[in-house]
Amino acid sequence: MLDDQTTAAATWPTAYPKGYAVVDVETTGLSRDDRIISAAVYRLDAHGDVVDHWYTLVNPERDPGPTWIHGLTTEVLESAPLFPEIAGELSERLDGRVLVAHNAMFDWSMLAREYARAGHTAPVRQRLCTIALAKELALPLPNHKLATLAAHFGVVQQRAHHALDDARVLAEAFRPSLHAAAQGNVRLPLLECRPLTEWSDAPAAPRIGYQSSYGGSGGGGQGSWRPSKKRPACPYPNPGRYEADKPLMQGMRVAFSGDTSVDRDLLEDRTVEAGLHVATSVSRLTSLLVTNDPDSATSKTLKAKSFGTPVVDEAAYTHLLRDVAPARADG
Q1: What is the DSSP letter of 179?
Q2: Where is this region: Disordered (predicted)?
Q3: Angle formed by the axes of helices 104-117 and 83-94, to 10°?
Q4: How many other β-carbons are positioned within 10 Å of the β-carbon of residue 6?
Q5: How many degrees, rounded to 5, is the angle at CA 40 between CA 37 and CA 45?
Q6: Do the beta carbons of residue 263 and residue 285 sit within 8 Å?
Q7: Phi, psi dihedral angles at 7 (to 5 degrees)
Q8: If you average pLDDT over residues 111-131, what whole number do you get?
Q9: 3-state secondary structure (DSSP) of residue 299
Q10: 123, 94 in Cβ contact below 8 A?
């Protein structure tokens, strides 16, 4: 195996990012109305070496949630700064860097909502999920929990579900992963980060089917932190695939992939209200995939390509939602 100097000098891909921000947030829960209660950032250079690190508590202005997991009580958090008070310093540490997190969809979604609430935009353009990277590298892991990834690289975890230690552990595990990717000239699984322009703090509807443990460092795949929402069955039969230049029809199965400017829950609610079915995966029965990043290598976009599923972006979809054709009378 090449040593680090050889990797850096001879085989480092020129297209790789110039810097990374390894992030972990602890939160009051998993829903859209939950809040960040602590955040940590390890800044890394282009080769994954640590530049510095930062940590803060955040007053969530509500119950702190599962204190038996993260250990942060109301008494501890009541004197902590509010998110708008730390947003500037956090932004300085994220600016110009790829956000790296374990189950990155979770950490990015929580940050995007906090920035939206504060009336700001996070200076993040791309994210990298270390779960996705581990899969790209085909690491021999029995599961994709942070503790398992850490053990694979001999990194000792000291305080699980403490944002600073989770970020440290991830930074130490990310560096050898990054070097392995560079040695193999592996394409990094970078995804676009799209800030929210429309969101809601209304209490989230009950959810079922949690697929990962609490917090941003749990197991599961990208996006699996979002538990399945309890929705009534679509009352209309599936009329088949969407056809370009024709309206959507009630009963169509619509799947979503990647970031959306409108909070995903709101977009899915509007989909159901229009008489469409929200599909959690892509199959041959899927009528349409909505994504702002059709070239990303997510499981949904790859399946859509293999099945020939029609794909539109968010802007086109929200326009189509304005005029959904009624289900066929003979359906």
Answers
A1: H
A2: 210-233
A3: 130
A4: 12
A5: 160
A6: no
A7: -60, -45
A8: 95
A9: helix
A10: yes
| Whole-number pLDDT of residue 142 | 96
At 257 the three-state DSSP class reads strand
- DSSP E strands in the chain: the ranges are 19-27, 36-45, 50-57, 98-101, 126-129, 190-192, 207-208, 228-229, 253-257, 277-279, 288-291, 311-312
The stretch 133-154 carries a mean pLDDT of: 96
pLDDT tens column, 167-210: 999 999 999 999 999 999 999 999 999 999 998 777 655 544 43
Joined tokens for residue 39: 């955040």
Bridge partners (DSSP) listed for residue 325: 249
For the question of whether the overall pTM of this predicted structure is more than 0.85, the answer is: no
Please tell me what DSSP assigns to residue 248.
-
Work out the burial of residue 106: count CB atoms within 10 Å of its CB; fewer than 13 is exposed, 13-18 middle, 19 or more buried: buried
216 has a pLDDT exceeding 60? no
Entry field: residues in the chain: 331
Burial class (CB in 10 A: 0-12, 13-18, 19+), 40: buried
92 C-beta neighbours (distance < 10 Å), count? 13
Whole-angstrom CA distances from 157 to 130, 148, 161 are: 16, 10, 10
What domains are defined for the chain? 4-192 (3.30.420.10), 231-320 (3.40.50.10190)
Complete DSSP assignment for 194-213: ---SB---SPPPPEE---S-
For residue 305, give the 3-state DSSP assignment.
helix
Question: Could you tell me if 36 and 58 are in contact, meaning their C-beta atoms sit under 8 angstroms apart?
Answer: yes
